[in-house]
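Entry
Fold in token form

___
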Amino acid sequence: KNAGARILVMGDFNDTPEEARFRAEAQAFLKANCTPKSAESERMQRKLSGAEYLKAAKSYQKKKAEAGFAGITWAKEHGGRGLPPIYSVIFGQEEGKYDAPAGPFAIGLGMCIPTVIAFASDAIKDRYVAKALRGEEIWCQLFSEPSAGSDVAAGKTKAVRDGDDWIINGQKVWTTGAHFCDFGIVLVRTNPDVEKHKGLTMFIIDMKGPGVEVRQIHQASGGRDFNEVYFTDVRIPDKNRLGEPGQGWNVALVTLMNERLAVGGSSGPDYKE
């Protein structure tokens, strides 16, 4: 049955028998691996350092992947279950009742890796997808720039072709989690002589690589999840390109559509390092 159509046409918000079995399976997993939310549990979470929280998050993500609760809607060939989106919603409903440290993986698994799956070569997918799903590597998305505001296509960070590589220079801002991420997807301008939506290209970038500098933004609220990221002669191999040169806007639209489908996780405690 199409769960979305069932809700819209019949007004039936009850689980089907299959969904009920999945919900019970999710409840059992969460009960065995997480602490129910409470004032005390939230206090204990806030006491964790950034390093301690990331260690706990990676351990939890590995358990999720092994139990089949990571990438629920992904194709089985990519480590998922190939289930309809309603199953991801169900798991999110149940996970939200617990202090599950899922936040660090929300962007990577909800937006970045689905984009890699859609546009990368088989060799690149083999390198990155499984590790991300198991929580071994964390990803961020690098779109926003200081001078572009909400207009993603107005970005000025540029990449110039140099043989089999591209050289990137520029700046991104408001990048969530960049200070603890291993990799990211970055949208850059590769052709300044065409209409802004046609001169962009998307790449996979090593966040720990030479020329990448991350500076945490200290907000008035005390939060430190956002970052400025500077690129100085960062060299990226052409094999890490996602989509054709100049087609980055189309790739970015796929990323943003995946964002709409992704189930949000908790943000986790403040990262103090």
In short: Confidence is low (pLDDT under 50) at residues 263-273.
